Backbone:
C-alpha cells in the first residue's frame, strides 16, 4: 500500500481534533539510574553508584501519555492508591490527560515496576534488573466510580482504548455495562489491548496483541511460519468479531488482518538494533487509535503506528513519540513545518 506525503500530512493535521478515552490499569514505572562502580566483595554482583530516579506513567497511563503527545485530547479512567507511588503517578498523569476519571483510593496499593539501569560514564545505561510490586485488589466502590466515569467519557470520545494489564479494573463485563449505559446512538471506535484475557473481549473495532500474546492465547508457536501467522490472525478475527487485528511482531514488523482482505505484512521502520522496548505496545495502540479516529484506514493507521513504535524503541525507558517526531518519520525532516 502506498500512502502519499499529502495524505499523511492531512491525517496528522487532524490529530488535534481527536478525543480519546483511555480506561485501564494504571502502573507506576520507576527508573533508577546508576554508574557501575565495582564488583562487590560480598557476592558476584555489580555495585552501582546512584545517579537519579524518575517515575513515569505505565500501563494505561502510558497509552494516555502517548495519545496526548500526538496532540489528541485525552480523558483517563483508572484507579490509583494514595500511597507515595500512587500520588507520584497521579501527579505525572495530571500533566498528560484529564484525570477527572482517575479514582484515588486510600485502600489501594499502587502497582510499581522498578527498573534499575546501569552504565559507565561514557556508555549508555542498560536495564540490569526489574522489580515488580503487585497492586492490591480494587475495592468494589472504586470500580463503580471508575465505571461511572467511563460512561461519561464514552459519551464524548471519538475512540476508546481499553488497556487491560490484568490489574482487575477492566473486564469485558465492565466494558459492556459501560457501553450499554451510554446514550449515544452509535458506539465509538474501540481498541483493546489485553495481556491475559484478549479472548474474552468481543465486538471491538480492533485489537493490537503482540505475537507472544497470540501464541499464549492460541497455544501455538509462530516464529517465521507465515502459514501459522495467517491462520492465527484469521482465527482472532472470527473469534473476537473485530474489524481488524494488528499483530506486532518485534523485529519482524507487524501483520494487519481484515476480513475479506489479504494480510498486510508491514516491515519495521528504522534499525532492528533497539534500545528499549518498554511500553512500545502502548505507543502502538495509542497511535493506531488516534490515526483511526482522524480518518485513517486500518492500513494507513497501522503504518503510522509502526513509525511511532520505531521511534520509541530507540529511546530509553517508558517513552513517547511526539507529533513532530512522527511527522518527521512519515514525511521526512524536510517536509515538517
Residues:
Amino acid at each position: 500500500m502506498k500512502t502519499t506525503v499529502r495524505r499523511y500530512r492531512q491525517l496528522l493535521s487532524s490529530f488535534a481534533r481527536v478525543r480519546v478515552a483511555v480506561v485501564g490499569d494504571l502502573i507506576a514505572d520507576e527508573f533508577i539510574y546508576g554508574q557501575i562502580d565495582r564488583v562487590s566483595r560480598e557476592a558476584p554482583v555489580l555495585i552501582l553508584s546512584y545517579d537519579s530516579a524518575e517515575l513515569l506513567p505505565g500501563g494505561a497511563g502510558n497509552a494516555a501519555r502517548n495519545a496526548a503527545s500526538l496532540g489528541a485530547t485525552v480523558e483517563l479512567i483508572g484507579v490509583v492508591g494514595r500511597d507515595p507511588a500512587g500520588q507520584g503517578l497521579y501527579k505525572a498523569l495530571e500533566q498528560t490527560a484529564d484525570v477527572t476519571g482517575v479514582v484515588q483510593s486510600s485502600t489501594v496499593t499502587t502497582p510499581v515496576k522498578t527498573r534499575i539501569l546501569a552504565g559507565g560514564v561514557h556508555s549508555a545505561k542498560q536495564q540490569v534488573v526489574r522489580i515488580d510490586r503487585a497492586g492490591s485488589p480494587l475495592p468494589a466502590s472504586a470500580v463503580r466510580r471508575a465505571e461511572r466515569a467511563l460512561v461519561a467519557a464514552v459519551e464524548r470520545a471519538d475512540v476508546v482504548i481499553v488497556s487491560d494489564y490484568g490489574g482487575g479494573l477492566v473486564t469485558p463485563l465492565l466494558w459492556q455495562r459501560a457501553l450499554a449505559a451510554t446514550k449515544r446512538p452509535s458506539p465509538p471506535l474501540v481498541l483493546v489491548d489485553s495481556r491475559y484475557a484478549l479472548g474474552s473481549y468481543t465486538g471491538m473495532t480492533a485489537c493490537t496483541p503482540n505475537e507472544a500474546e497470540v501464541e499464549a492465547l492460541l497455544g501455538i508457536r509462530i516464529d517465521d511460519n507465515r502459514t501459522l501467522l495467517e491462520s492465527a490472525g484469521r482465527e482472532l478475527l472470527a473469534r473476537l468479531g473485530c474489524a481488524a487485528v494488528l499483530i506486532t511482531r518485534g523485529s519482524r514488523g507487524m501483520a494487519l488482518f481484515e476480513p475479506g482482505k489479504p494480510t498486510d505484512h508491514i516491515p519495521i521502520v528504522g534499525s532492528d538494533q533497539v534500545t528499549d522496548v518498554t511500553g512500545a505496545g502502548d505507543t502502538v495502540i495509542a497511535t493506531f487509535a488516534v490515526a483511526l479516529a482522524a480518518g485513517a484506514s486500518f492500513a494507513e493507521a497501522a503504518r503510522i503506528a509502526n513509525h511511532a513504535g520505531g521511534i520509541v524503541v530507540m529511546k530509553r525507558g517508558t517513552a513517547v513519540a511526539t507529533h513532530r517526531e512522527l511527522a518527521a518519520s512519515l514525511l521526512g525532516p524536510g517536509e515538517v513545518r
Q: What stands out?
A: The first helix runs from residue 5 to 14. The radius of gyration is 20 Å.
